[in-house]
Amino acid sequence: MPSGEYDPETVESKWQDRWVDEDTYAYAEGGVDPDTAFSIDSPPPTVSGSLHWGHAYGFTLQDFVARFERMRGENVFFPFGFDDNGIASERLTEEELDVRHQEYDRREFQQMCREVCEQYEAEFTEKMQQLGISIDWEQTYQTISPEVQRTSQLSFVELYDEGREYRQRAPAIWCPECETAISQVETEDDEQASHFHDIEFDVVEGEESFVISTTRPELLPACVAVFVHPDDDDNQHLVGEEARIPLFGQEVPIIEDERVDLETGSGIVMCCTFGDQTDIEWYQAHDLDLRIAIDESGTLTDVAGEYSGLSSEDARERIVSDLDDAGALLDKRAITHTVNVHERCGTSVEFLVKDQWYVELLDKTDEYLEAGRQMDWYPEKMFTRYKNWIEGLQWDWSISRQRSSGIPFPVWYCGECEHVVVAERESLPVDPLSDDPPVDACPECGHDEFVPEDDVFDTWATSSLTPLINAGWDWDSETEETVLDRPELYQFDLRPQGHDIISFWLFHTVVKCYEHTGEVPFDSVMINGMVLDENREKMSKSKGNVVSPDEVVSKYPVDAARYWAAGSAVGDDLPYSEKGLRAGEKLIRKLWNASKLVEGLTDDAPEEFDHADLRAIDRWLLAELDDQIETVTAKLENREFSKARDGLRSFFWHTFCDDYLEIAKGRARDGDASAKYTLQTAHRRFVKLFAPVLAHVTEELWREMYDEGSVHRAAWPEPLGLEADFAAGETAMAVVGALRKYKSDNQLSMNAELDRVQVWGSVQGFEDDISGVMHVEELETLDEEPQIESVVTGVDLDYSLVGPEFGAQVPDIEAALEDEAYDVVDGELHAAGVELAPEMFTIEEERKYVGEGEMLEAGDAVVIVQHGD
RNA sequence: GGGCUCGUGGUCUAGUGGUUAUGACGCUUCCCUUACAAGGAAGAGAUCGGUGGUUCGACUCCGCCCGAGCCCA
């Protein structure tokens, strides 16, 4: 029995505990009909300690869907994955244990990661449960687990067998300090002091020479081309010639390309293997030679001739001084420029050439685009991001990462002929660094020594398999094919994703799963925006504007946070808002207080009541609620949480509490069965309708008032199918509103008695309700319009009809109306030489009451109040 | 630099060719009415980022400009 004030602190944690203890959200395993399974493929968050808004917000939106679908009778599969296979977890482990991963072999280090992450997983789980997310905690996985490693390697083997993967030498971003390859997203720009060296190059044919400016003279031995901008008229004649590199002597082509920056240096630029990103682009675009002059420890190679063996620092000094001696160094000046550095250690990155594995994409982009088109996108506009990403693809997907921790490639190479030997499917997962290859001798050349691949998979190569991990995809050695352990889950009904990461994560997942199953993995995709701070700026540690979910939930009810989270159109960013949270708190309190009242009024309410005997206002309320149910259901189906929330809130607060409840409470106290039945029926339905968003308070109310089971397992309400006179109801409420305003304007209390009220308008069946709630002694409905003098004040046109009919004549008609140069003849409006049909206009008039009492306008109705003195 | 998205009262937000532009928060005034004063009633407050164009008619469609965000370079 709800009583006193609502105490969210106690109530919310009570239900969170019970939901977990009672397995309220358990997925019913075994023989599930695919039609009634509703599966969510929630992207596993990186487990690195703290839970941030990205997690909390994304999962709250998923939870709205999960709870809604569950109540509609779906068997909801809402799993949770811990992504502890990434760089973040590697760093976490190193920091926590004060070790370096290089000091351990891979399996040992992974074991350490697993142990460290376990504590964080537990913390993470607890925090997710504190947010009331209806995850089935029996359905979890860790991306570092042997099972997931097996899935990842199986995916690799399958794609390799299908000819979708190949190995090629390609540039990798390398941190010489950490001695590891890093991805582009781990680099950042940094302003650094450096020097420009103006170096003279000779043209091979003839006497001419030109100058290039470089900050990295030590790359001269790696120079493979020289570039001139197409708009550079002064140097255009050089294009097609060859240049000779000072000191090193190699001859390289001079090529035209618009990526040359005319503003910097001399406008002529050398291209090396590899100085920067542009060098890589040029290498790929112009099919240039490779001259690898610097190795992974930053030491010059044989390509650098006499400078071989020097560190790049030392080599730079020597080369600069030798250039000077040779007269080729024309100038040296200090500058600052932007360099690409590793975000973790600040070291400038190098570009190395490595053998890497690729998944072929470019040949099937049309299919992948079509796959994306087959999914429902919420919001629809996000499909264009997917589309742009695919259409803009220029390279296949590199899945090699030169790190020591991660999931290893299940591959060995013949020590003699480099033939690729892939692990047997049955034996997965393997680690080639510890395990033997499946053959004793090379099938190609018979050689019996193998070199293990020591790279690991790109993290997306694993993250992109979550639908397959969740559906239990595996190799069946009996039938020799891949099978799904839980086929009913696939395709997944819902894939949630942050909009910042659609291109990486979602795209790769669609591609991988599509390749493995021939099917699009998702029926629908729901894209969520970012949580911004109160000033609409992105939260970041460096700005110091981060508000953590923990802080919020300790200050506000979780349901208030959920209410706030439902406040943006899906896909739009959501600004953090204390106001939004307070509005949520207010709604919770209103719902609680109204529930207390309903409870007090309906203890002996009839379970059943013949709808034909319902009083007009009760019938009207239930019919309006029918409409509201249809609206809320449609909004939730379309993931329009904000509209569902606001529509329901407004209907509950204003129509139910302010209008109906005020009237019905008097009747219910007088023992009116129709009112009691209606109050209880409507209230039950409200509790259910609010349940997906206000998960905790509705559970408390439901179990206190209606049922021992969870509201989250109760059936979503269906419309009762009642007919009612909506117009009369609306008019009656307008009359009540007008009377309230009258009392307010006349500084009367709301329960002040009114002597006599006359109503002209259709309020049949509502008369007693009006007089009851407004304390009217005598209420009379008029059959004839009261003594009113009407003054025509103008004519209103219905432009949606007049516009298409009269087009360019409309301004003339308007001018005629303005000048009052019109007539109404037989209901038609004659103006500016044309005749307008009756439905095209309305005569606007001001009504003046000349009889006794005061006239009020109440929608279509007219109300006359006669009140003492 | 390229692509995408967005710009509506002080703040957040609804509104994709046709009323007086929606609602919430905040603000002002009034009202203790036995569920709730953390409530109720009323009110003020917007030239819909700017500028051209299409149209009888533009917050809505198109061009350009300005500003913000995201992704890619």
UniProtKB/TrEMBL annotation:
One molecular function GO term is: aminoacyl-tRNA deacylase activity
Which keywords belong to this entry?
Answer: Aminoacyl-tRNA synthetase, ATP-binding, Cytoplasm, Ligase, Nucleotide-binding, Protein biosynthesis
Which Pfam families would you find in this protein's record?
Anticodon_1, tRNA-synt_1
Which top-rank group of organisms is this from?
Archaea
Q: Which Gene3D superfamilies match?
A: HUPs, Isoleucyl-tRNA Synthetase, Domain 1
Which top-level enzyme class is recorded in the Swiss-Prot or TrEMBL entry?
A: ligase
Q: What is its main location?
A: cytoplasm
Compartmental location: Cytoplasm
- Kindly give the PANTHER family that the UniProt entry links to this protein: VALINE--TRNA LIGASE, CHLOROPLASTIC_MITOCHONDRIAL 2 (PTHR11946:SF93), VALYL-TRNA SYNTHETASES (PTHR11946)
Functional description taken from the UniProt entry: Catalyzes the attachment of valine to tRNA(Val). As ValRS can inadvertently accommodate and process structurally similar amino acids such as threonine, to avoid such errors, it has a 'posttransfer' editing activity that hydrolyzes mischarged Thr-tRNA(Val) in a tRNA-dependent manner.
The domain section of the record reads:
ValRS has two distinct active sites: one for aminoacylation and one for editing. The misactivated threonine is translocated from the active site to the editing site.
Report what the protein is called.
Valine--tRNA ligase
* Organism name: Halogeometricum limi
